[in-house]
């Protein structure tokens, strides 16, 4: 237990010394070439002609690769094969890769890129989901979930409201941009170091594009400087390009996108245009809810269908609604393919029902809190997708937040402040969250761990987990340290490598620690059993009497002479295996897409946040005074790491809802294409005070050591920031017509304050 509380993120030691190795820090081989991507300067059109001659003639340019150089398939689509690596005769988004320039230096490759001449016959550009819907431009068929009979239920409602919402995209802004380094090995094998959340996806796609077997491709990942979903699918093309060039040149090739290229060429969180209809009884029970979600998917499927599905899973957030009908449509537009981003469509769905509740509250003349409170999910309630809610903490976190943080006082303070001040107004909102844990695609819920105990008693662990700052390596170390009762220093987490752990799911869906942790736990337990058996033979006592503690074997709680290291070498001398490979697949989960019913999630994570803001009504600027959260960690195995995840996710969620504004012009060109025009929360704009209290709970056995997944759920607390701002605006301007159009930037706040 002591380890659980006191553990630090083991990566912090190399981080603070600047010693952590990212792709750009690798010692490259002599003769390494550098790649720069030539991308489309138009969002939609037919390529009439490209003249590479001037670029090719530039001193230091080795070769320019196009689709014609692809020996296998010019195809990188995951869920749907609809995305070429390089454009052939048409371009579908501004920033779409057309060619890879390979030169002696990145500087030369960049210079060469400016010399390429391209002639494009422009075609009509679609930038919004609504436009795409009107023109029948879709990625795939719509999906719908339903429960009860919403049509009938609306007829019995005392109140029915309809409306529309918009939530914008979000740039991942991982500090480490996309990149890869490819090194040719003997016999045509290639080793790729990639900044990817999905090493297997990279391996599989390279094999497909090169037309070679997967075993020829080794993908290695030490760590990422952030992923946030942006490297679940979209780390792949750059690794494939580096591999393609390396394949042809038989030389190492490094390809790192600079920030401008990364911003322009990669997809982001999906913007959603949605409409809702909500029906309530006299006593504020939500009896019926309908929503249509138009997802702006961009120019290719990428992960959009899976993200769309998660929007439906989370459309009713933490509420029990007996009659539901939700539909999501993935709309094909001429933007870069939008992709996974922390929450994976869930936040977009939750924003809509929170908007519907705010609207209903405002029309009925109650506070949103009153509606939220009477509709919170209870034990054995049914989700619209058929799963029965178990071990529900919705009311527990809500009521705990109310009492621990003294909501009455907080609300009274806001009211008194607003009565006493005319140019500053405060607003407060509560935000409950419920998030399902598991890949919604059931077959993806598995992982493996390969554990070696070395002769000297040190331990090496390989899993499918990718460390991206979330602290998963530290959690894996804790598990092994706990099982073997050895200090953390004896354990090393190896790089994530496809030759050691194969056929893996990406590190995503908040499930990395659960899946890989359970596999690690299984492998360690099997090894422990073997070691204990050897100890029992050696000491001539029964296995039940043996325990490992603090690097020694204990017999009936009494320390023996046999140390951990001696035990390991004795095990080796007996020719007993000190290596174990374990496979974990989440039990119990299933989902039937033909019925849209099942039990897709191992469990849910719950929580409630209370957010307070102060708006400067002269300027439209605002600050978040405090965010007070009661969060469901289960029984946290690493309190510091988990708290860091909650704080980071909260800041990211608030950023999405309030200040991060992605802008494309009508021609599909990204306008927010630099950090001067795209603003993310910095130290001055995060809440001034954040407090996170764990809810009292037993945890869940489906979670690793009962410690629940923590990566994504807390992002959605940030949605409360939108409604806190809206409440502050209402306190200043009673004429304000509620709008649900995120992000709520200071410009929008200012206009709302003075709208008549
Ligand atoms: N990725 C994925 C995810 O492939 N499937 C999921 O269900 C998911 N959920 C959250 C984040 N990434
Ligand atoms: Mo994800 S949004 O890569 O968990």
Automatic annotation (TrEMBL):
Pfam families in the cross-refs: Ald_Xan_dh_C, MoCoBD_1, MoCoBD_2
GO MF entries: 2 iron, 2 sulfur cluster binding; iron ion binding; oxidoreductase activity
All residue ranges annotated as the Aldehyde oxidase/xanthine dehydrogenase a/b hammerhead domain in the record: 17-124
Cofactor list: FAD; Mo-molybdopterin cytosine dinucleotide; Mo-molybdopterin; [2Fe-2S] cluster
Gene3D superfamilies: Aldehyde oxidase/xanthine dehydrogenase, a/b hammerhead, Aldehyde oxidase/xanthine dehydrogenase, molybdopterin binding domain
This protein's UniProt keywords: 2Fe-2S, Iron, Iron-sulfur, Metal-binding, Molybdenum, Oxidoreductase
Keyword RNA-binding included in the entry's annotation: no
SMART domains assigned to the protein according to its UniProt record, in alphabetical order: Ald_Xan_dh_C
InterPro entries attached to this UniProt entry: Ald_Oxase/Xan_DH_a/b, Ald_Oxase/Xan_DH_a/b_sf, Ald_Oxase/xanthine_DH-like, AldOxase/xan_DH_MoCoBD1, AldOxase/xan_DH_MoCoBD2, AldOxase/xan_DH_Mopterin-bd_sf
Protein family membership: Belongs to the xanthine dehydrogenase family.
Protein name: Molybdopterin-dependent oxidoreductase
Organism: Psychroserpens burtonensis
């Amino acid at each position: 237990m002591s380890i659980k509380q006191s553990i630090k993120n083991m990566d912090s030691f190399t981080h603070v010394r600047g010693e952590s190795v990212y792709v750009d820090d690798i010692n490259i081989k002599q003769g390494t070439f550098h790649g720069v991507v030539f991308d489309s300067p138009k969002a939609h059109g037919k390529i009439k002609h490209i003249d590479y001659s001037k670029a090719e003639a530039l001193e230091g340019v080795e070769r320019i690769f196009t689709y014609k150089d692809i020996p296998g398939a010019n195809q990188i689509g995951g869920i749907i094969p609809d995305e070429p690596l390089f454009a052939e005769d048409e371009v579908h988004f501004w920033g779409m890769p057309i060619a890879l320039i390979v030169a002696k230096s990145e500087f030369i490759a960049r210079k060469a890129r400016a010399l390429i001449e391209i002639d494009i016959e422009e075609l009509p550009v679609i930038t919004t989901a609504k436009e795409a819907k009107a023109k029948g431009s879709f990625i795939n068929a719509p999906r719908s979930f339903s429960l009860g009979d919403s049509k009938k239920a609306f007829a019995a409602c005392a109140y029915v409201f309809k409306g529309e919402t918009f939530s914008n995209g979000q740039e991942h802004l991982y500090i480490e941009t996309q990149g890869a380094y490819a090194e040719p090995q003997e016999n045509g094998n290639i080793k790729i170091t990639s900044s990817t959340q999905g090493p297997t996806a990279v391996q599989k796609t390279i094999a497909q594009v090169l037309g070679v077997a997967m075993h020829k491709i080794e993908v290695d990942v030490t760590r990422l400087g952030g992923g946030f979903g942006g490297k679940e699918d979209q780390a792949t093309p750059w690794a494939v390009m580096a591999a393609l060039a390396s394949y042809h040149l038989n030389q190492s090739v490094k390809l790192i996108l600079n920030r401008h290229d990364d911003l322009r060429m990669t997809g982001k969180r999906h913007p959603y245009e949605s409409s809702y209809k909500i029906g309530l009884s006299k006593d504020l029970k939500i009896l019926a809810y309908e929503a249509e979600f138009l997802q702006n998917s961009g120019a290719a499927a990428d992960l959009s269908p899976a993200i769309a599905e998660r929007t439906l899973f989370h459309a009713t957030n933490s509420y029990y609604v007996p009659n539901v009908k939700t539909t999501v449509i993935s709309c094909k537009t001429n933007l870069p393919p939008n992709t996974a981003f922390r929450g994976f469509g869930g936040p977009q769905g939750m924003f809509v029902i929170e908007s519907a509740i705010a609207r209903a509250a405002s029309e009925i003349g109650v506070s949103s809190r009153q509606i939220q409170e009477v509709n919170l999910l209870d034990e054995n309630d049914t989700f619209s997708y058929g799963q029965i809610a178990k071990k529900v903490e919705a009311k527990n976190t809500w009521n705990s937040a109310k009492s621990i943080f003294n909501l009455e006082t907080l609300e009274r303070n806001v009211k008194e402040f607003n009565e006493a001040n005319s140019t500053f107004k405060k607003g407060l909102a509560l935000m409950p969250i419920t998030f399902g844990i598991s890949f919604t695609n059931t077959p993806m819920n598995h992982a493996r761990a390969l554990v070696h105990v070395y002769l000297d008693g040190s331990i090496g662990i390989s899993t499918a987990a990718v460390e991206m700052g979330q602290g998963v390596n530290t959690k894996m170390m804790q598990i092994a340290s706990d099982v073997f009762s050895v200090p953390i220093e004896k354990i090393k987490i190896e790089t994530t490598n496809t030759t050691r752990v194969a056929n893996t799911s990406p590190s995503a869906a908040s499930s990395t620690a659960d899946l890989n942790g359970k596999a690690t736990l299984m492998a360690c337990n099997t090894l422990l059993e073997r070691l204990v058996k050897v100890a029992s033979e050696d000491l001539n006592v029964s296995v039940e009497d043996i325990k490992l503690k603090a690097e020694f074997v204990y017999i009936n709680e009494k320390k023996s002479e046999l140390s951990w290291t001696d035990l390991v070498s004795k095990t080796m001398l007996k020719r007993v295996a000190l290596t174990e490979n374990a496979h974990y697949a989440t039990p119990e989960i299933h989902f039937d897409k033909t019925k849209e019913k099942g039990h897709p999630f191992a469990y849910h994570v719950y929580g409630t946040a209370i957010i307070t803001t102060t708006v400067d009504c002269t300027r439209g600027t605002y600050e978040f005074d405090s965010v007070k959260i009661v969060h469901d960690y289960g029984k946290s195995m690493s309190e510091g790491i988990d708290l860091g995840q909650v704080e980071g996710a909260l800041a990211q969620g608030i950023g999405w809802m309030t200040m991060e504004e992605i802008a494309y012009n009508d021609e599909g060109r990204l306008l927010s294409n630099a950090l001067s025009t795209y603003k993310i929360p910095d130290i001055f704009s995060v809440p001034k005070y954040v407090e996170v209290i764990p809810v009292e709970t037993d945890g869940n056995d489906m979670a690793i050591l009962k410690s629940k997944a923590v990566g994504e759920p807390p992002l959605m607390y940030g949605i409360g920031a939108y409604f806190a701002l809206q409440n502050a605006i209402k306190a200043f301007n009673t004429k304000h017509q509620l709008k649900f159009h995120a992000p709520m930037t200071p410009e929008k706040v200012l206009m709302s304050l003075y709208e008549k």
